[in-house]
Amino acid sequence: HPSAPSLMMNSHFASVGEEASKEAYEHGIQVIDEDKAFNDNLSTYLNLEKIIPAGFNYHLISVFGSQSTGKSTLLNYLFGTQFGVMSEQERRQTTKGIWMSKNKRDGRGMAENILVMDVEGTDGRERGEDQDFERKSALFALATSEVLIVNIWEHQVGLYQGANMGLLKTVFEVNLQLFVKDSKTIPRSLLFFVIRDHLGTTPLHNLQNTLLQDLSRLWSSISKPAGLENSRIEDYFDFAFVALPHKILQPEKFEAEVEDLSKRFREGYKDPKKAGLLDEAELPVFLPEYHRRIPADGFAVYAEGIWDQIVHNKDLDLPTQQELLAQFRCDEISREVLISFDEKITPLEDKQAEDARHGKSSVIPDLGPIMNAARAKILKDFETSASRYHKGVYARKKVELEGKVDTRLKALFQKQLSAAHKSGIETFSNAVSAAVKSGQKKGASYDFAHIVESEKKKALERFESEAQFIHVEGASWSTSQQELSLYQKELDEVSARLRKDEMRRLATRVERWVRSRLDESVGLEFNKIGTGRGGSGAPEHGERPPSEKDLWDRVWTIFTDTVGNAENRFTDRAQSFDASPDEVEVGLWRLRRKSWGVLRAKIDEEVMEGNILLKLRENFEDKFRYDGDGVPRIWKQGDDIEGLYTKARESTIALIPLLSRFRLSKTSAPPPLDAWVGSPPQSVSPADEEDLAPIGGVDEDEGKSLEEEMTILGDAKAADLLVRFKKTADGVYVEAKRSTVSSMTQ
Ligand code: GDP
Ligand code: MG
């Protein structure tokens, strides 16, 4: 037997007032009342009796027979039921409609879960001419029951015109009507004749033969549907016979034989050989082929549907009823199994929806195992309960359920994947930045390209393993190549952005280097003005070198050398992290422009009013107060102070126009800054130009010529400087003059 399914239907009935309910169903349940109304509480009762989870592991028996032939009494003895029994004194009909009760004597070799239906007496004595109920109850019993017990008195045997024959005729006709439509699978039923008040004078065997003869006569007399004219009664029914002694007169014997009879209500075999070993009187009653194959959890719905068709005199089409039942139950089971699926999955869906509302996304830990477990469980649960129903309907409903489940899981999957995508990109970007920062901190030159490559590899692995982790076994989708390549593409984009940042950092570092180099070396050149010994010539040989004349040549050389050096550094480093030739070209172009700005600022600082005036004064004093060997002059009477003064002053004054314009001595023209900077590279972007100051003569549309760019001191400033310098020089001269006068007076 199939084991009991895990699914419990209407399980709340079992807990709420179970004891009270049990009392209410002490006598079983009246499935159909005297007004032919179906009892809505049948499933409550079946649940109470724990039949619902039994699957196919249950049995249905109906009892037929005339009024007051001791049917209910027999059932109560046989199955420990408490069907109402007519009291000996009143002799009034007690059983009305159809009652059902579960066997209370199971566990003593009897089959499990035997349900017995006690059908209202069928001789119509108290219902008058109401043959209608007889027919309807027969239909109902046949559509549901495996075994029909026909209860008759011994003295009724052979009375072919008796009430029992009327009943059996109805049963046979109804049977043909019921099962002809489904001729492929004709379920057999067992007609179990229980002969009451058996005196013992006529052996059971003889009674049996008489009954069989009557039955085949009856069978041949009924009108059969087309195509079934030659069908035999044995095609549809098996027969069994038992005789019981008089219950009132031989109570002990009656009870003992009922006890024997009860042993036959056990599971039978399909294998006839096994059955053949037994005495006919001991054969088991329940053969698998009798079973109507209505799963226990669908029985109440099925029975109600059947009864509804019967009551409304509709053609009872069992296959259609079974399909309808299957649809109904499969839907119900779907809803039921979805409950525990929802318990697991809905909170995750809510979490993602909540995230989406806040414009964020987060990776749900353990999503993969949760989804897989939930999917496997719901499909397994559904299969366990629903696969007992009509195969076609079950298959269709299973696909439906799978579709529903997979749609939801796929949404979870994709949102998780996009969260993994986002967080993967973020992690990647952060990891690269952190590695760069720690590289900078250590002061070591870190390998940017290597950092990016290894972090990118990790990021890809993480994404792939996350996708693998949330793969749903058996589902119709998986991570597409597209999702992966989208991720890869974004990693590349972020890498490019990070590399650009790194280029900027590199540029800043190189610029800083250029600035400090120029600060030092250009400053040095300007300081030489102060000594009046500027220039590369050797002052120690007495001859004054061309000094300041080639100041700008030296500055230009220093500048281009320094920047050239910086360019090499920049290029080497940028190439080390796979910067594109275009990126390098733009970077170098920017570096040259910015370096020019640095130099220009340095020069401006050097020629600031106070600085340059001081240097001119030093230059003048050096020429005026020191002789050609650098020895300070002591003014004596008769020295040509005025002559020396004029010579030194004019020489220094000559520096002002020289300083005013950045020109190379060879060409007397400005340095070729425009050519040196070069025109903007093709790939330069507006962002690259954003922070660049315009350069006269280089940026033509600036309206400033190279000549102007190279003007260090404007005419007004130069004139002003000249006036100030002259005043300073005059002061020095007066002081010198005064010193000779004072030396004379000593
Ligand atoms: P039902 O209408 O067929 O269910 O019959 P009941 O079980 O209510 O019994 C009807 C009457 O028959 C009751 O008074 C019983 O005591 C009596 N009765 C029960 N069993 C037997 C039996 O084996 N033989 C006879 N003669 N009477 C019986
Ligand atoms: Mg009865």
Automatic annotation (TrEMBL):
Presence of the UniProt keyword Cell division in the record: no
Keyword annotations: Endoplasmic reticulum, GTP-binding, Hydrolase, Membrane, Nucleotide-binding, Transmembrane, Transmembrane helix
Residue ranges with Acidic residues bias: 687-700
Keyword Membrane set for record: yes
One GO BP annotation of this record: endoplasmic reticulum membrane fusion
Residue sites binding GTP per the record: G65, S66, Q67, S68, T69, G70, K71, S72
Entry similarity comment: Belongs to the TRAFAC class dynamin-like GTPase superfamily. GB1/RHD3 GTPase family. RHD3 subfamily.
Protein known as: GTP-binding protein Sey1
Species of provenance: Lojkania enalia
